[in-house]
Amino acid sequence: MRVYNVLHRRKEEFEPITPNTVKMYVCGMTTNGLVHLGHARQAITFDMIYKYLKLKGYDVLYASNYTDIDDRLINQAKEQNISPLTLADERIKLINQTWKNLDVLEPDFRPRVTQCIPQIIDFITGLIEKGFAYKTPDGDVYFDVKKYSGYGALSNRKIDELIDSVRIENAENKHDNLDFALWKHTEPSEFGFQSPWGQGRPGWHIECSTMIKTYLGDEIDIHGGGKDLIFPHHENEIAQSYCENGCDLAKYWLHNGLITINGQKMSKSLGNFMLVDDVLKNYDSEVIRFAILVNHYTSTQDLGEQALSQAEKSLYYFYNCLSSIDETIQTNDDLVNKFYESMDDDFNSSKVLADLFVAFGDYSKTKNEKIAGAILGCVPYLQKVLGLLKHKPAKFIENVKQKYLTKLNLSTQYIENMINKRSTLKKEKNYQLADAIRDELLQKGIMLKDSKTGTYWDIKQLY
Ligand SMILES: [Zn+2]
Q: Which residues touch 92 (CB under 8 Å, ≥6 apart)?
């Protein structure tokens, strides 16, 4: 199996530190909002990787955190007049439900920052003692970036270049602009935790380094996250962990690409911020998974309305083909072998689905039993790893049809009446009027297919 290791900017053979065991950590959500499509892409990407590693027989330990305290969350809680921890609890319940709805498996560990404060304090204390961090008179603690010579390796930049790109935060007491906060003091009236440096809260970066050490150990195999986290977040995690533990934090760094919505960056100000719970009112969860997994996880991809409706059409096509295959035929491994080949090549789900498209196309044309057997043989793997084709085909097809009928403002009853009328006209050899009915339905978005067993209707837009 080969994976693209961002640290070395190349595909490498995957060899875990301890044979057959994979320790994986992925930066989780900050609970100041609900799950949007960007979060979904990351979660579904690493869910696929988690499930595939398990399928390959690895003993996987997967941890992903919740940052359950930050400035925005504290302000939101103030507005609602509740404690930030209560608000975080409520959010996490909703977020977990969304993951469930998206068929995203719960990681083995789901640590929260507010539950790891003693470990974080220990970690920071260790860094100060070793001379890699310093306390300011205000009660903040900073990591001294210049003390770590490897800084910039992940983002492939030199320290001097990086200095220009960092935000200059209240730099008065920092030795250097690149130095980042491990601990930030808070006023007595504000939310905070007691520490050897006074009341305060941990910085964001230290949280991940500490949780990895606590739940998985000093060295892990895979560290994941979105590309936007490479700098400074992951760069800072690497620096802290190396200085505290004396070894590399992670052997392989995997980053998923970012998403756009209808060609634009997703942002609240543009009003194109798409929450998964809202998308799920309109689309089956498999449609979201398909829209994401049809692209390679490292690519930038659009997840706007067009991508979602295209994904729905593709799945509709898959389910239609599947429903025409006799479930009792002999299965074979032709597609399963291709599935492993593609997934072993840096989790190329895009290739898996492309191969499936071809197989469904060939089967539709030829009705070849061997191809049908290959498709049926592969379905359990798609279900297990990609979370696709888990529905009963007839049910999925019916749901999509009904959704379109509502949009077209038509009913099944009306269409069936028209079909009956047309059959009668045809029997009476009144072909002109029969054709007129067919054209009328087509204009309304319904197409008819005549076969030996009768006339069937379908939604024109879905083809
Ligand atoms: Zn992180």
A: 31, 66, 68, 112
Q: Residue 185 Cα, ligand 1 centroid: separation in angstroms?
A: 21
Distance (angstroms) between ligand 1 centre and the Cα of 410 equals 50
DSSP type of residue 228: G
CA of 234 to the centre of ligand 1 (A): 6
Look up residue 190 and give its two tokens: 């504000």
> Domain boundaries in the chain?
2-257, 261-394, 410-462
Separation CA 46–CA 297 (nearest Å):
9
Tell me which amino acid residue 36 is. H
Helix axes 334-344, 369-381, angle to 10 degrees: 40
CATH of domain 261-394: 1.20.120.640
Q: Residue 394 and residue 380: Cα distance in Å, rounded?
A: 18
Task: Give the Å distance between the CA of 233 and the centre of ligand 1.
Answer: 6
- Measured in Å, residue 345 CA sits from the centre of ligand 1 at 25
234-247 residue pLDDT tens: 999 999 999 999 99
What gap in Å lies between CA 1 and CA 345, rounded to an integer? 6
Tell whether domain 2-257 is in CATH 3.40.50.620. yes
Q: Kindly report, residue by residue over 353-405, the tens digit of the pLDDT.
A: 999 999 999 999 999 999 999 999 999 999 999 999 999 999 999 999 999 99
Amino acid at 397: I
Cα–Cα distance, 207 to 233 (Å, whole number): 11
Q: What's the 29 CA to ligand 1 centre distance in angstroms? A: 9
